[in-house]
């Protein structure tokens, strides 16, 4: 406690130098928390959005279905058995039939993934009720990215061509019933949603599906391979983790700058305060205790930095959380909300404080070790 | 009779009279490829309550001798026994304990801690001991009263004159009621008036509290107050004499 008290007084006594170090360190601290908060916020929003718009709580796949292998898509479908149908009727599962198809917007040919989905489903946020209609017109819904890429708008007709289950090509005009705004790129880019029943008729399938989106895991659904939300979110997790790692490099550089300032101050301190070190020893401190005082002094920088960072960081973070960070409507091909709201968990804040505290204490200790080898008589003379 | 004082893990013997004994003490410092001999075959002893001075020109070994007595350094040869313990045999912790409890230092340049107030500077030594805040306050205020600085308790050293700084240093050395106070050229940076003032203060503390004061000095003003003068030249004791006190008034 005495060492903390001494360190605190010495730091305050050092005046501007202390506050410069503390300011730089607090900036590093705030930026580390902010950056990680952004990543966590993006992660949370993206996971939630992906679950809301695409994957639910998991999916039951046809055993041959592999979303990364287009050759599996056309053959990966099977009839929905009684048990699955009961779950569908109970609103716990949403069947989707997936087939490759081609559209010709403005005469250009574009491959798409045609997704048949029941209009009445409410498990996913997709506005599938727009697929309802009592006329002969086949309605489709598309995402804003798809609309942008194909220059399609609500009410536009577009030619859709597909191969039915016998391999026969067929085509018809479909109408864009709605363009939905969704942050999940995979649920949007190259996807065309159509009424599940209409698609069955088009393809000559009888109550078959490629996958079943689940609101919760259904025990013992035979013939289907369950893919958990974590499995389905792995790509997103990998992407976010790679962003986190590249962010770590920036944070490390920032932290290094701040720690370098502390290291430099410590070296200067030990050089300039030799007489003080000698006095401490003359007054009855052991060299280890003096090393401790100087180390704690460096470490206390981080505590002051955390306090200073909290003083301007908390209002800043609260404000940012109310307005969010605007990423615009720029299509980056990844799942990211137009506005990302950072998420600051106590683990993040505590972890950041600990990292800054530990690293600043280490860089303070390295130069302070010299004191242990200092002759007290030389130190008293300032040598 | 020998009283035994236990401080942490070490036992210092409080001898009735001889509290410092230096036997055939030699101190060498490495210089280049060879050695510089700062002290040669010193044989001295100091009793309780002495007011003695090591006098001699610069480089005569006064400060080196004080440093060894104060356990800040160890002899190269011979033996230095302080409060019944051989300095060379003390661990760092034991030596620090001895300095903290039994030895006060007064330096030529005061060596006050600049970021602390007068009160905090004096209190510092007591912070290392298990003394309650109330007792510390009492002891610090008494020490400041001895040196006449109770009105300056909240001042920082930078706000004090040289004489006042040295009086703070005296208070700091005395607040823990040490057995020995080592004063290294305490008046070297002071004018005549302040020198006499602090010497009278130390003389009074020596008489009232029975603390042993050992000075290192070549200041004539200090010599007027010494009851015993040990003259050093080139690291050797050339004279050791009891002195008739001349009035400092």
Automatic annotation (TrEMBL), chain A:
It is a multi-pass membrane protein. Pfam families: FtsX. Residues 250-376 form the ABC3 transporter permease C-terminal domain. The chain crosses the membrane at residues 20-38, 249-271, 303-324, 344-366. InterPro entries: ABC3_permease_C, Lipoprotein-release_system. The keyword Membrane applies. It comes from the Bacteria. Its main location: membrane. Keywords: Cell membrane, Membrane, Transmembrane, Transmembrane helix. It is found in: Cell membrane. Belongs to the ABC-4 integral membrane protein family. LolC/E subfamily. This is ABC transporter permease. It comes from Carboxylicivirga mesophila.
